[in-house]
Specification:
With about 325 residues, the protein is mainly alpha-helical. The chain is built from nine helices and no strands.
């Protein structure tokens, strides 16, 4: 039994068909390669960063941050009161202020990152995963630009707004921790040292002249700054000045000096803890703001290209080629 093989015209027709098919496949491959080469050449001549979009998003985020800080300052002044039974406590105010800083950073960074992603330059022939990375980078850059802009240009206004609320809260809570780090705060403790005893006749040199008060204030500030007790010579000298100008005996003066130094250190320690908590709140707010700006930029970029899948479903962002 033999197997028939094509010959003659049938063989020629089959060879011609294979030739056309091979040519068609080669032509299609050539077109694809040419398209890839054109896209690569265009990509090489185009920056991956749309600085105009980054600047626009950063300015928007910085401006919105200032608006939110102004609103928070107004709410803060409304929540504090000089009356002991009105308003919120100092500790509650600190926690509320920290939470508000995080919320404000999240809102402003989200808006800024979305604007940076939506306004960025359209990329041609870039893989979807690269597009997602670039969108994320644009959101992060917009947040960084807003942070630098806020620190350099808007820092004075923000400090004025936040500082005013903090001062009002400290007055409401009856605390002197924020003032204990300055000469003005030390004046309060100097007043405590030279406070006359009503039950004791005032001596001839009652009170203290400005030079003595400044000297005692410097002694107290040095002790607080170095985080140590008063040296024995300074403590003895301070007690002698207090005894000479208040009418109390040396033993009572020494006890008063010890009590005032202890109270001043407690106030300084409270100020240190408050500053540490504020720094941690600010760090959390900045990190959350950077994360929110990056996610919002992905959303803006997807809407810009018409490939929106949402940040939560970012794994479906798989188009092989997108603009």
């Amino acid at each position: 039994m033999s197997v028939l093989s094509p010959s003659g015209p049938e063989l020629f027709t089959q060879d011609l068909y294979c030739y056309d098919a091979n040519n068609a496949g080669t032509a299609a491959m050539t077109d694809t390669l040419r398209a890839d080469m054109r896209a690569s050449a265009l990509e090489e001549n185009q920056s991956a960063v749309s600085w105009a979009a980054v600047a626009a998003g950063g300015v928007a985020a910085a401006s919105l941050t200032l608006v939110l800080l102004a609103f928070g300052a107004g709410m803060g002044f409304s929540s504090v009161s000089p009356w002991s039974n009105s308003g919120i406590s100092g500790e509650t105010f600190k926690i509320a202020a920290g939470v508000y800083l995080i919320v404000a950073a999240m809102l402003s960074s989200t808006i800024g990152g979305y604007i940076a992603g939506r306004l960025r330059t359209k990329w041609i022939g870039v893989h979807s995963e690269e597009v997602a990375f670039r969108d994320t980078a644009h959101g992060f850059l917009a947040w960084a630009f807003a942070t630098v802009l806020g620190a350099a240009v808007l820092g004075a206004a923000a400090t004025y707004l936040v500082g005013g609320v903090a001062t009002g809260a400290a007055q409401n809570a009856g605390q002197a921790e924020s003032a204990s780090q300055s000469t003005g705060a030390a004046e309060y403790f100097v007043d405590m040292l030279f406070r006359p005893d009503p039950a004791t006749p005032a001596p001839a040199q009652a009170g203290a002249d400005p030079a003595v008060r400044r000297e005692i204030g410097r002694i107290l500030l040095r002790s607080l700054r170095d985080n140590r007790d008063l040296p024995p010579p300074d403590r003895t000298y301070t007690a002698q000045m207090v005894a000479a100008r208040t009418g109390i005996n040396q033993a009572e003066a020494d006890k008063r000096v010890a009590a005032v130094v202890t109270e001043a250190k407690a106030a300084a320690d409270d100020a240190r803890k408050a500053a540490a908590k504020l720094a941690l709140w600010l760090t959390a707010a900045m990190l959350i703001g950077a994360f929110a700006a990056s996610l919002a930029a992905i959303e803006g970029g997807q809407l810009r290209d018409g490939t929106w899948r949402g940040v939560i479903w970012a794994r479906n962002y798989r188009a092989q080629r997108t603009g």
